[in-house]
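request received
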Amino acid sequence: MKKRVRVRFAPSPTGPLHIGGVRTALYNYLFAKQYDGDFILRIEDTDQTRFVEGAEQFIYESLKWCGIEPDESPLHGGSYAPYRQSERKPIYKEYADQLIRTGKAYYAFDTPEELETVRKNWEAQRKMFIYNQETRSMLKNSLTLTPDEVKKKLQAGLDYVIRLKIEGKDDIVFHDLIRGEVRINKLQIDDKVLLKSDGMPTYHLANVVDDYLMRISHVIRGEEWLPSTPLHICLYEAFGWENEMPAFAHLPLLLKPSGKGKLSKRDGDQLGFPVFPLSWKDPQTGEISRGYREDGFLPEAFINFLALQGWNPGTEQEIFSLEELTKIFTLDKVHKAGAKFDIKKGIWFNEQYLRKTPHEKILPLLKAELSLNSWNLEDNKLLQAFDLMKERISFHKELFTKGKFLFVAPENYDWTTIKKKLNDKSITLLTKIHDNWSVIEKWEVFTLENVFKEIIEQYNEKIGNIMPLLRNALTGESVGPNLFEISVFLGKLEVSKRIISFIETLKHNFAYKI
RNA sequence: GCCCCGUUCGUCUAGAGGUUAGGACCCAAGAUUUUCAUUCUUGUAACAGGGGUUCGAUUCCCCUACGGGGUACCA
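response:
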C-alpha cells in the first residue's frame, strides 16, 4: 500500500509571512491536493525570543485569502494535534532523552559566551569553528567529562544543551525530488544543538520529530534548508526511523529584482511592490507595510502569478485557476534556479483576471472601495461603470481614480487639447448636440451616435475636432471609453448639465475666440 | 574561509544530442478605434567562458567565472 500523501507548511511566527512563504505553502497545497492528500499547517514557534504578536494570525488570514486553507492546523484541529510546537515541548524533551540513552546524543555545558570565545580564537587563525566530531573532545560535554561530573552538573541545575553526536566520515547521499542526488560528507556536519537550554527544541529536532509523528510523506520547503537536510537524515537514522523518512524537495528561492539576495521580509516596500500578501502593521514600531490584497490584487491572480515563479506546466498556457493547478502541478517541473521577482508580470495577471472575473465576485470589492469615497451608486450601475473601465485599468480600485468622471462631474478640463481643437464652430456645435440630445426619447448608444453624426455632417465639422471637446465636457479628459456609452451611463440629465457647464466655462475663458 | 545548490532573451521560462533555440511579461512598430485602452500582426533580444565525450552539443562530463543558499542554544 502506498503511503498517504501528507505535506506540511511550517512557518515560524517571527514576523509577517512573505510571498516566498506563500509560494512554499502553495506548492505544498497543490501537491497535497493532487494526490488527494493532506495539507498541514504547523506553527514552529520554538524561538521564544523572536515571537511577534499577530504573526500567527497573519498566517491564517493570508492562507485564507489565497484560498489555500490547511486540512489540519492549530486553528482547524486534526488528529495529530497540537500543531503549535510550543505546545509540544514535553514531546521533544522525551525524544532528546531517548537519544541520550541510546548514545546518539550528548549533554553539552559550554555556555554561549564560552563558545563565542572559542569561535573568535578560531577566526583569529582564519579558521571557522564548528562543534563536531573533531572539536567536541576539547569542549565541555558528557563525552569529555566523567559520568560523575555530568551527574553533578545536571543535579546542580546548570544550563545544558543536548547535541546530536554525528559519527563516521562517510557521505550522506539523498535524492531530492527537484535537484536529484545531493551528497555531503559527515565531517561537514556539526553536532547541532537539539534541545536548547530553555528546554525548547531547535528547528532540527522539532522538525524531524513532528514530521515523523505527523506522518509527513513529503517535505517541500525552501532551498535554505538544503544544507541542513543531511543533518536531518542523521537524525532520522539516530532515531531508527530511516524507513519512515519523508521524501525531500527543495524549492528555488524568490530573489530580489536585482538578483542580489533572497526576497526578504526586511525589504518591506522599499522595492516598490508589496512583499506580504496582506498589509502588516508592525506591533513594535507601528510601521505599516503594503499587502497584495490592499494594493488591489485579486487573490486568484496573485496565486496564479506566484505559481509561475519557479514552476511551469511545460505548455504555453499561463492562466490557471487554483483547481487547474492542483491537477497539473508536478515537482519535477519546478525550476532549479532562483527567480528574480518581477512585479510587472504580476500586474499583467491581475489585468487578465480583472477582465474575466464574474460580476458577483468583483461587486463586493467595488462596493468596499466605493464606500471609501463616500459615493453612492446602485450595484448594477457600479458594475456598468466597471465594465466601461475594466479594459483600461490594472486594479479594480483604479475605477475610482481613472474613472472618477463616472461618479462626479469634472472639475477641471484638459486645456492643452481643448485649445488645439477649439474653433468658431465649437460652441454652436456643442449647443446643438446638447439641444438635439435633450429631446431624444430612446437614450441609447445607437441613437446618440446617430444624432451626433447628423450634426457634424450638417455643420461640416471634423469628428476629431468636436469629439475631444465633448469628451472634455463629460469627463474632463481627452482619452477614455466610448463617449456614447459614457453618455448612456451618465443619463440624459447629467449629460445635459455637464455640457452646459462646459459651454459656460468656454464662453468665460475664450470669449475672444468665439 | 569551508560546504551545498544553481547559470537559456532585461524578467519569468520551454527545451531532456541533430530545433530557423519556442512562449509570456516588458519595450518598439503597424492595423483597428473619435481618443485612450483592448484586440490583432510584426519586430528587438538569450544558450556565462574554456576544455573534453560524440559524426554532431544549449542539452552529457570536468574546470573556471559568476550568482544564490548554508555555516547560531534563528527558523
